[in-house]
Amino acid sequence: MLELDLKISQRMGIAEKPGLLRNLAALLAHSGDSWFWIAGLALVWWLGSPDWRSIAQSMLVSILITAVFVLAIKFLVRRRRPDGVWGGIYRSTDPHSFPSGHATRAALLAVLAAGLGPAWFGWALAIWAPLVILARVAMGVHYFSDVVAGAILGLAIGWLALHWLPL
Fold first, then answer.
1. 13 or 37: whose pLDDT is higher?
2. What's the pTM value of the predicted model, to 2 decimals?
3. Domains of the chain, residue spans
4. How far is it, in rounded angstroms, from Cα 83 to Cα 141?
5. Could you tell me the CA-to-CA distances from 157 to 25, 59, 64, 163 in Å, in that order?
6. Which listed residue (30, 96, 102, 163) is catalytic?
């Protein structure tokens, strides 16, 4: 299984291939950063309407809860990131790749957007999330299995949040 995972991950890799596709993948890979979402959602909570404040608050709390789960799993598994140069900030601050926190967060946010927000917001994040997830492999900071596991975890936590948390 690990050989297949490595083969799929290497085939998807474009981090070392200059061009428009690589630049787009890099942008998408960064767009799932937690600091970006926390800052953006905090701004929406501060300036938004009551409905958007509620959505932002639910997403912020869910991101923080999800981060605890992801970090716990990462430190239990301790799978090293794939070799590569791109994504030095990720490699230095978090050397572990399984599961992908970006994939978990992207899937979580897509589920929450679909369940809490207006339809356009749900659709936008449903399109964005898989692009972020694939971009993390394409840029060489995750193996394919890292993002699959992260996406499944994000979908599950999102579903649980919508059904059990007082959102």
1. 37
2. 0.90
3. 33-164
4. 8
5. 26, 11, 12, 10
6. 102
